[in-house]
Amino acid sequence: MNIFGKIICGALGLALGGPIGLLIGVWLGHSFDKGMSQDFGQIFGNIDPAKTQTLFFESSFAVMGHIAKADGIVKKVEIEAAEQVMMKLGLAGEKRDQAINAFNHGKSADFNLETQLRDLILNCARKPSLIQMFLEIQIVAATADGEVSTAEMQILYQIGNAFRIPASQIDNLIEMVIAQQAFQQGGASGTYNGGPSPEQAYKVLGIPQSSSKQEVKRAYRKLMSQHHPDKLVSKGMPEEMIKVATEKSQEIQSAYDMIKKQNGF
Q1: N or C of the chain: less Cβ packing under 10 Å?
Q2: Confidence of residue 19 (pLDDT cuts 50, 70, 90)
Q3: Cα–Cα distances in Å, from 18 out to 6, 10, 23, 27, 126?
Q4: Greater pLDDT, 143 or 58
Q5: pLDDT, tens only, 131-141
Q6: Residue range 154-183: mean pLDDT, rounded
Q7: How far is the C-alpha of 103 from the C-alpha of 81, rounded, in Å?
Q8: Is the domain of 76 the same as that of 112?
Q9: Is the pLDDT of residue 156 over 80?
Q10: Residue 221 has what pLDDT?
Q11: Residue 224 · residue 249 · CB < 8 Å
Q12: Average pLDDT of the chain?
């Protein structure tokens, strides 16, 4: 039972407003203690890894469906993108059905994004790398048709706001994910045959082209740490979705190799 709020607020109320202030302070303290026993307790208490994995999996596909429906009509290419993610993850049987059901729920008229994200936020509050992976998955869904519409951008900003991530950081993540996709398609072969460019390589690492050798290495190590499959699993990412993190790591590695080759280090 939490009583610290009652004690602190009660003492302050007594000092500032006498007996009446004491009563008001105790009442305010009770409200604070009640909040601490609910949401804050979930954030700072022990988190069940299995619950986090389930929430991450279902939320990923549900929000993916919500983004696909953002423009009013779910396009064929957006459905294909979701199916490609399922195939890439090797989902079959019950897991595939679970992903499809979540996707369909996300594109339904009664889907509530805020409600869907609430438990995920509580379970991922101290796991920024897991939050970033969730956002990257949604950005992949938003860019499935080659562009991010205004409606899709609003949803991405809404997700960012729920996780206290500013719009400017969401913009940077979108640039990063689009650049990563170029490496996924073309490897690190340079601009020949339509492959990725050095400019895109720097965008993958989220740094300007003027970055020093030390800054490049620092950005690379940070991103590789954030996308390390074993670390993400330990934080609650479903094992079925680790292939996404592995692919991201390969794209980051390819971009870093291009920059190293270009600069001779």
Answers
A1: N
A2: low
A3: 15, 10, 9, 14, 40
A4: 58
A5: 888 898 898 88
A6: 89
A7: 12
A8: yes
A9: yes
A10: 92
A11: yes
A12: 78
Q: How far is CA 23 from CA 8, 20, 31, 34, in A?
A: 12, 5, 13, 17
Q: Are 166 and 213 in contact (CB under 8 A)?
A: no
User: Given this model, what pLDDT does residue 179 score?
Assistant: 86
CB atoms under 10 Å from CB of 160, counted, come to 20
Range of the domain at 132: 49-263
Contact yes or no for 82/61 (Cβ under 8 A): yes
pTM across the whole model: 0.70
Is residue 264 packed enough to be buried (19+ CB in 10 Å), middle (13-18) or exposed (0-12)? exposed
pLDDT of residue 36: 40
Distance, CA of 94 to CA of 88 (rounded, Å): 16
Angle in degrees, 0-180, between the axes of helices 76-88 and 242-263, rounded to the nearest 10: 90
Q: How confident is the model at residue 158 (pLDDT cuts 50, 70, 90)?
A: very high
Same domain (yes/no): 185, 244: yes
Domain identity same for 245 and 220:
yes
**233 and 171 in contact (C-beta within 8 Å)?**
no
Burial (Cβ within 10 Å: 0-12, 13-18, ≥19) of residue 45: exposed
Judgement on whether residues 65 and 160 belong to the same structural domain of the protein: yes
